[in-house]
Amino acid sequence: SDFTLVAPDQTQSPVFPISPPRTSSSSSSPPPPPPPPRMAAKQPLSDVEDGLLAHLNANAEIPDSRSFASSLGVPHKDVEDVIKRLTAFRIVESADITKETWVLTDEAKGYAARGSPEVQLVAAIPPEGASKGALKERLGDVFDIGMKAAAKNKWIGFEKGNKDLVLRKVEDTRDELQEQLRRLENGEVIADKVIDDLKRRKLVTKEKSIWYSLKKGPEFVAKRKTLATDVTREHLKSGDWKDLEFKDYNYGAQGQPIAIGYSQPLLEVREAIQNIFLEMGFSEMPTNMYVESSFWNFDALFQPQQHPARDSHDTFFLKAPATTTQLPDDYLEKVKQVHQSGGHGSKGYGYDWKRDEAEKNLLRTHTTAVSTRMLYKLAQEVKQLSDAYFISL
Amino acid sequence: CLSKPPLSAFTSSGSPAVLARLPGSRVPPPANNTAPQPPLAMPTVSVGRDRLFAALGRVYTQDEFEALCFDFGIELDDVTTEKAIIRKEKHLEEDVEADGDDEVIYKIEVAANRYDLLCLEGLARSLRIFTGSEATPIFKIASIPRGSMLQMHVRPQTSQIRPYVVCAVLRGVTFAEVRYNSFIDLQDKLHQNICRKRTLVAIGTHDLDTLQGPFSYEALPPQEINFIPLKQEQTFRADALMDFYRSDMKLKKFLHIIENSPVYPVIYDSNRTVLSLPPIINGAHSAITLKTRNVFIECTATDLTKANIVLNTMVAMFSEYCENKFEVEPVEVVSHDGSTAIYPDLSCYKMEVSLSDIVGPIGISLDETQVISLLNKMQLQADLCSSNREPCISVSVPPTRSDVLHARDLAEDVAIAYGYNNVPKSKPKSMTIGGRQPLNRFSDKIRAEVARAGYMEVLTFVLTSHEENFDMLNRTDDGNKAVIIANPRTSEFEVVRSSLMSCLLKTLKHNIDHPRPIKIFEVGDVVSLDTSRDVGASNNRRLAALYCNSNSGFEEIMGLVDRIVKIVRAPHINFGQTYYVPSSEPEFFTKRQCKIVMSDGKQVGYLGIVHAEVLRKFGIPDPCTFVEIDIEALL
């Protein structure tokens, strides 16, 4: 399997736990989005780490990471991230502490912030009273629940004969529910009876929470050195490079795939062969003529017109352009004579040579057709024949 | 990290368009496997291995035999059995039991003009003479008084359809089944090759004892010819027989030779028994059997030279089985003008050649006696001829070696007998300056530049289907563009490409699963009709590139064009500030295409986002941009 060259940069990336081995393709993916803004004042994780290590150095243990987090004034999540990172490097040893706690439902969170439905209802009733419709419009869902609880508490009343007008019967209301919810939100211990009541009203649910107790690990250091993964422009500019210590590379990793162009391998081979001939003094012949006449392809090569290679099974003849009529007449006559009755030491084939057959066009069946034309051209042009080497590929 | 180069699938199966090839260099494989095998320029002779070794007088290992073949200039093409051949023909699996024999068969490829190697008898004899275990036979014409010689009278009407006939008789032949089969096979091979599927020559062989000479070779209206043809039991009239054979797989392809003629050629004996209706079928009456002792051979022809070669080959091969070995009885052919000729003509062709004309072209130095012994190995009777000042050799070319026409043919045989591998290597004696074709050098520079730009080079077939070249590109054929093949073997190879576009789109389609972007290119020739050239068509060297991704990549292709323009821009290649001019071609999206023009207004290329319809026809799901440039114009 291929690993990334370096593990993710711990000084920069807040992503933990340490990612599993990643493929090179995923390592090229964009960096993860920045963490969402937090309620508490932002404190860099390195500060959290420093504080935690300093505390451990002084006190040997941290029994409760949650209270440690509140002592630093940072969210527990930040401390948790740091703990996981340090545990991975065996700088600290952590033990899980799990506890089931009651947490507020979304509905209850609203009450904790804005008050219980009954208090909201009472607060909304003006001294002269208000119609149910107007209150409902103003309070929405809270209205029905508020009406029920407020009536039970006898905080509201109705005018005789007009059941629609709601009257406020108390001046000051103490919001016990909001208080309970806020206490629960802050992690305070609440009486079971109250919890049962909240549970019935579907304002709390049970949730498992986890935190840690910590002590020094075998690799404990009071201050952790941060290792660099790469040399950046900033390092060079600032002079930081002098103090850089690098994280180990994984040389077993594969490099990044690169976009590359290729030559066709067969053409590479062609070039190699061509070079041999060029080095020996051969000249290239022009081969860019796929359409050829039977005359130059066969007849001029002393290939008889009934040769099986000239059969339609072995040669592509053409519908368009079907024939070549421009052939050198004097040379054509010589070719005809040699086929029919011989000459130049040959006895010939002894058959009736036909011009029609020679005029038939075809797709050049071999580059020897190129040689034929070249020989004819040489004979026409060269007065004194000297050695010449030709190659066609 | 090149162990898995991208687009390696370009060479995998399923892609027919991989290698560039010169058109017509070999017939592309027929799409339909059941199509009959075309006769090849190099015929293959199938002989039983054990019978061949018996005829050679020794047993060879396959390697030894292959070495012998190589030395003699033939090739052991395949080793198989009759069973395997039948299995292959019927497309049977390995484990299915097929009919046929388990005898090992050697398929041997021989030169197309060596008709004497087309049967076991001739092949074995040539190899025995080559290895020195036998002398070249001397064929004799039986001396028969002129008056008692068999006669064949030629009627004048034959000149309308098939003017020549030559004949011979083999006496006292002993046929065993294998010999008989070989005799029939040789006729088939000759019919296929030199006889050009019976158009030039057709062979008829008959049991002479069932016939009564003299014979007559006539040409009659088909209605007047009635006989029982070979393998039939009833009498047919010739015209009805032609209709009858229209459904005969073997014979129907010969009917065209005579069917439109008012007269059909026919051979009778003196009792008006039909010997044959050449070149279609023999009569049943005179059919050869294993018991036949005296064989009458007639060859009717439109080419007398070839008729003689065919007749000579037949008698030279099978006179081996005559009572008087290598003796042939002649037949007198009496022409309608009264002239007569006696066949077969087994005389040797005499040549006198200087020693230097033989050894010079080979590049070896041998003396006359060495050359003579090498010629003798190749069945060429040679002797010193002292008349000239220069060392000279007289050669008698036997009737079996009709391929020898010229001193160069003797030099070739001497080189074979000497052994090509024994010819010493030497350096050229003269100094020449090599050089490349400017267009090819330029093409290579362009190829390298485009490869450097990250494109992968492909090689595609020069031939394509008409549909791919036109319809599938939304283009129409006005009849003035493409070179069209008259006898295409498959619908995939009907025209010579007039653009590289379909080739690259096809290649892309076959590699569509490759990671994006796919960037391919080809530098190659297209051909179009051109009346200014003697042959009526001309090549044009093109560069084509194709970009395929989830977006069109138009600007990528423009970047490539800009690069090409930049490197070729020179004092004599003038491109203006802008060289893209909007175009409206059907193969591209409207408003997403342009021409590439030089400052003189000459168009040298075009590019565009390939039209959705074109992509659909080629089965490509992603957008592509294509460019094609005439690089000859940039040279």
TrEMBL record, chain A:
GO cellular component: cytosol; phenylalanine-tRNA ligase complex
Domain Phenylalanyl-tRNA synthetase: 249-379
Gene3D superfamilies for the chain: 1.10.10.2320, 1.10.10.2330, 3.30.1370.240, Bira Bifunctional Protein, Domain 2
Annotated spans, Disordered: 1-45
Compositional bias segments (type: Polar residues): 1-14
Any coiled-coil regions, as ranges: none
Biological process, per Gene Ontology: phenylalanyl-tRNA aminoacylation
Pfam annotation, one family: PheRS_DBD3
Source superkingdom: Eukaryota
Keywords for the protein's UniProt record, in alphabetical order: Aminoacyl-tRNA synthetase, ATP-binding, Ligase, Nucleotide-binding, Protein biosynthesis
Domain PheRS DNA binding, first and last residues per copy: 116-172
GO molecular function annotation: ATP binding; phenylalanine-tRNA ligase activity; tRNA binding
Pro residues composition-biased segments: 29-38
Protein name: Phenylalanyl-tRNA synthetase domain-containing protein
Gene source species: Aegilops tauschii subsp. strangulata
From TrEMBL, chain B:
Main localisation: cytoplasm
Organism ancestry: Eukaryota, Viridiplantae, Streptophyta, Embryophyta, Tracheophyta
SMART domains, per database record: B3_4, B5
Protein name, per record: phenylalanine--tRNA ligase
EC class (word): ligase
UniProt cross-references to Pfam families, sorted A to Z: B3_4, B5, PhetRS_B1, tRNA_synthFbeta
Domain B5 as annotated: residue spans: 346-425
Alphabetic keyword roster: Aminoacyl-tRNA synthetase, ATP-binding, Cytoplasm, Ligase, Magnesium, Metal-binding, Nucleotide-binding, Protein biosynthesis
E.C. code: 6.1.1.20
Native organism: Aegilops tauschii subsp. strangulata
Biased composition (Pro residues): 26-41
Gene3D superfamilies in the record: 3.30.56.10, Bira Bifunctional Protein, Domain 2, Phenylalanyl-trna Synthetase, Chain B, domain 3
